[in-house]
Amino acid sequence: MKKRFAKILVVDDEASMRHMLRLVLEREGYELVEAADGEEALKLLSETPFSVVLCDIRMPGMDGLALLYQVRERFPQVTMIMMSAYGTIDTAIQCLKQGAYDYISKPFKTDEVVLCLKKTEERLELREENKRLKKDLKKNEGAWELIGESAGIHQVRAIIDQVADSSLPVLITGETGTGKEVVARTLFHRSGLVNGPFVSVNCGAISSGLMESELFGHVKGAFTGAEREREGLFGAADRGVLFLDEIGELPLDLQPKLLRVLQEGEVRKVGETKPAQVNVRIIAATARNLKEEVGQGRFRDDLYYRLNVVELCVPPLRERREDIPVLAEYFIRRIAAKEGYEPPQLGKNAVERLKSYHWPGNVRELLNFMEKTMIFNRGKEIDVHALPWEVRREKREDQNDYSLKEAMKRMEREYICKALAATNGNRTLAAGLLEISLRSLQYKLAEYDLS
Fold first, then answer.
1. Which of 25, 175, 318, 374 has CA atoms 20 to 30 A from the CA of 448?
2. Strands (E), 250-386
3. Statement to judge: residues 387 and 400 lie in one domain
4. pTM of the complete model beyond 0.70
């Protein structure tokens, strides 16, 4: 029988308990090492690698909770399973909060221990898989891609392919949250400048007084507080790309200076008399209508035409609904890999509801909703009831938002999810926290499709 861990450390002051566990678990193919107290267990852990420790709580000297704390500090890779004949729900919760994987009440059936170890094997397998996923994510960090197969995204990709190797400026337009920076990074990674820097700045996030120094740099003593020379973002982006997000927020007095850089390829630091040559490709983005801004005198027309050599319009999410399931599942996989658990499935009813939502915040809102959804849903499937309220309430126009019955159901489901999350999915402990019977909890799990 293949096991991910070969040795289990059993820590219990009762020799009869250690002997019973040895008989049961060796029959299942495990190899046991015994320790009679916490001090002996720590000595063995420092000498031999163990993946799993079965530990009693009440022992003379260093008790199980003290050992649990020491193991979490010194051997964080070890999975701790606690046992006790004197425990309560509060004790179990305390163990889980301190980092134990599971809790078994004595006396227990031997099948309970075997089942717990099998669950632990699955957990360790998932941990290894998530390590590989995180390694792949880190390896591919910055390898941005546009997710989706809609006509709008195909058109964006086609334009990127046409202009990627050019040095001309590109203006990316689209509503807030559509993924304009992702488009900019995709363009960068498909260009001949991929070995150079990609420097990003949000023009609306820096005060107008600091913007010139931020973009062009300054020399020491150029103004009060300039205690040392600063390179500036144009200098940092030399031989690469400078991404100017929210270009419509750029102050009017700085716009002619940016235009000069675009026309002459020269940057002059604040306080310096001689300009320096830079080789930077400009990619700008805006959620504003720059033509209207030009007409109202808030944006220079000459700068607009210099930036808008190639315009790339990113469609809003409501115009590419066929991409919503693909994006949602992509975000689920990334969130699960980051947090360290198996990605849940997205149910058909949830997919349909996501596709029917109007998405005012676009892709950024979808990512936010997936993060909210996965906080309390680490099971095999995310159904429509697990989605955020904003999405669920759009089920029908005549839905009664004032229904106490529906509100109570939503609250009840939320509390069940919280209790299960607090007990690592242990239904018995969750039922105790909720002050209902295990049978009632099982009924409600089925009712709310949380099984």
1. 318
2. 266-267, 276-277, 280-286, 310-313, 345-346, 381-382
3. yes
4. no
